[in-house]
Specification:
The protein has 8 helices and 7 strands. By secondary structure, the chain is of the alpha/beta class. The protein has one domain: NAD(P)-binding Rossmann-like Domain (Rossmann fold). Strands 3-2-1-4-5-6-7 form a 7-stranded parallel β-sheet, with helices on both faces. Helix 5 links the parallel strand 5 and strand 6. Helix 1 runs parallel beside helix 2 and helix 1 packs across helix 8. The radius of gyration is 17 Å and the shape is globular. The model has no long low-confidence stretch (mean pLDDT 94).
Length: 255
């Protein structure tokens, strides 16, 4: 079993953007890391190399979080990777971060579009967590990534935001049902962040950046580095008395 000095975190979608920064910041806390990637193995390799250079252990595994039928095989691959690279078949923290953008007005949403978002952002989170619970150490934690769009409304985000709202409810139930195992479950809800997410629509639009800045108390859009440290904190003993909570990291959008 992993000892207190060698805790392990699994971060889905850890090769780029928010997930990359989460992986790096969690490693800075002295926690070893496994990241998943969907298609971009080269970027995943860079993250693993950077973490290893910092003195922590790190590994990667391929996973499409929208394909629930693959989760059983993924669990077996994860167990093999944990034994091979970390000397244990359990881990301590699960960060459900992987996701894609999807923006359509309600009148334009197709069932296919809806189902793709559902499979990745809610069904995938639910059943991957379920599948991995037997490998999660007592006293560990789960961090699910939501969105500021569950609190504020922007046109074209109804389906995506609805999935994230479901994740927030699911997280509270995880906190309740897993409390007897000492496992904490919390949600981090980023605001508008300039990453590749959603085809980098915010990062590539100066007009959108100005609009976000105008309604944000701290006066700018977010960057990936604004989020990773919040997730890392939730994977430490300093957060041992926090569970079932939604923590928004948006710079004070619409407060």
């Amino acid at each position: 079993m992993a000892t207190r000095e060698s805790k392990i975190a699994l971060i889905t979608g850890g090769s780029r953007g928010l997930g990359r920064d989460m992986a790096l910041r969690i490693a800075e806390k002295g926690i070893d890391v496994v990241i998943t990637y969907n298609t971009n193995e080269a970027e995943a390799d860079k993250v693993v190399a950077q973490i290893r250079q910092s003195g922590r252990k790190a590994s990667k595994l391929q996973l499409n979080t929208g394909v629930v039928s693959s989760f059983g095989l993924f669990k077996e691959h994860l167990k093999e990777k944990l034994i091979e690279d970390f000397g244990t078949d359990h881990f301590d923290f699960l960060v459900n971060n992987a996701g894609v953008g999807g923006y359509q007005l309600i009148g334009d949403v197709t069932e296919q579009f809806f189902d793709e978002l559902m499979n990745i952002h809610f069904k995938g989170v639910y059943f991957l967590t379920q599948e991995l619970l037997p490998l999660l150490n007592d006293g560990g934690g789960i961090v699910n990534i939501s969105s500021g769009l569950t609190r504020i409304t922007y046109p074209k985000s109804s389906a995506y935001a609805a999935m994230k709202g479901a994740v927030e409810v699911f997280t509270r139930y995880l906190g309740k049902e897993l409390g007897s195992r000492g496992i904490r479950a919390n949600t981090v809800a980023p605001g508008a962040i300039m990453t590749d997410f959603g085809n980098a629509h915010l990062r590539n639009s100066e007009e959108s950046q100005k609009a976000v800045s105008a309604v944000t108390a701290l006066g700018r859009p977010g960057v990936a580095e604004d989020i990773g440290g919040v997730v890392a904190f939730l994977c430490t003993e300093d957060a041992r008395w926090i569970t079932g909570q939604r923590i928004e990291a948006s710079g004070g959008m619409f407060i």
